[in-house]
Design a protein that fits this description.
two-stranded antiparallel ribbon; alpha/beta; elongated; 36% helix; 10 helices; single chain
Length: 353
């Protein structure tokens, strides 16, 4: 019997299948269909425009929030680029988008570009934009076939890395690696420039004004996997919600395609990020309650401190501890399952004739 999806609308359907020779012995109690149950869609509306006609989505120049919980070692780099470049975005790609631009790469952030495979092989683009690293987001089959490689980047001495996944569902597990790889490259590039400038200052020479690290993230089209990685990066590093992050990426590269599966993927990642930030905030609040007269010890991470003495209370109760100590264990399963069967009669899917 095919699976059905019931929607409890309260109206009774009295018609029956005309192909049946005899009337059925039962009638559906609610309207129902043969479609597979699915979660509600994630609707991403087009962003509003400001008075100048630009998309009204941006990352403020106050700098990203919560660096350390996102694993970024050198917070000064992102503070520098956000203050130097101002609010993002500053172009109206959505209003003046041309079809040919899908073959190009767009600057999503001052140091992060998004584009297709063809642009990663464009020597002129790599030189003009001074790209310092390329990141290919590819399927493992393409990796075995040695596809999505860029000889142009190799010849120019540009660092390259790959994020290989068997399917889009594996992207959520690859987000931390991709974000850490981008951040590590940017941090190292920033530190190297700072060291060079310090040496020049010691020699009495003016510092260099060369740009900091710039990363190109690409896939076959530049519209799906790589766009999802860029959106995840913005969500993680700038504490931005799902919908504004997608809007920001689309405001710069209008041809990106976030289908339902990719939106659900980013929605799950958004929940993970919120949980991590809640844990980080809880730990920070717990450290404040210790007081200035107590040693600053992270009791959450110290295995030497007994559970009952850790900040934040005792450890989680076990399942058995959540019930009365004198409960008759022979009847425990029946007690735990009672709620699953309550009020079930009110939602009978069919009624007998």
């Amino acid at each position: 019997m095919p699976a059905v999806h019931a929607s409890h609308t309260g109206s009774r359907q009295t018609s029956h299948d005309p192909t049946l020779s005899t009337p059925p012995s039962h009638l559906p109690n609610h309207q129902w269909s043969y479609r597979v149950p699915s979660p509600p869609r994630v609707i991403v509306p087009p962003p509003q425009t400001n008075g100048a006609g630009f998309p009204d989505v941006y990352i403020g120049n106050g700098g990203p929030a919560d660096f350390e919980s996102n694993g970024f070692a050198n917070s000064e780099f992102l503070k520098t680029v956000t203050y130097a470049y101002g609010d993002i975005p500053s172009v109206d790609s959505m209003l003046n988008w041309r079809y040919e631009e899908r073959r190009m790469a767009q600057k999503i952030l001052p140091f992060l570009y998004l584009g297709p495979l063809s642009i990663a092989r464009d020597v002129d683009f790599l030189k003009r934009e001074q790209i310092t690293m390329i990141m290919a987001v590819r399927n493992t089959h393409a990796a075995r076939a040695n596809l999505l490689n860029s000889k142009a980047a190799l010849n120019l001495g540009i660092e390259s890395c790959t994020i290989d996944v068997t399917g889009n569902q594996e992207l959520i597990a690859a987000f931390p690696k991709a974000i850490a790889t981008i951040n590590t490259h940017l941090s190292h590039t920033y530190e190297e420039q700072q060291q060079r400038n310090a040496e020049l200052w010691s020699l009495g020479q003016p510092p260099q004004t060369s740009p900091l690290g710039r990363v190109l993230v690409f896939c076959e089209t530049g519209n799906e996997r790589s766009a999802t990685v860029v959106a995840a990066y913005i969500m993680a590093m700038f504490s931005m919600d799902l919908i504004p992050a997608i809007q920001l990426v689309q405001a710069q590269r209008f041809c990106v395609s976030f289908d339902d599966s990719l939106r659900f993927l980013l929605q799950s990642y958004e929940a993970i990020l919120r949980a991590k930030r809640d844990v980080a905030k809880s730990r920070a609040d717990s450290m404040v309650t210790i007081g200035s007269n107590h040693p600053r010890i992270d009791h959450h991470l110290s295995s030497d401190v007994p559970a009952e003495g850790r900040v934040g209370g005792s450890s989680k109760r076990t399942l058995d501890e959540s019930y009365e100590d004198d409960m008759d264990m022979d009847n425990a399963d029946n007690v735990r399952d009672d709620e699953r069967f309550e009020r079930r009669d009110e939602f009978a899917p069919f009624l007998d004739q």
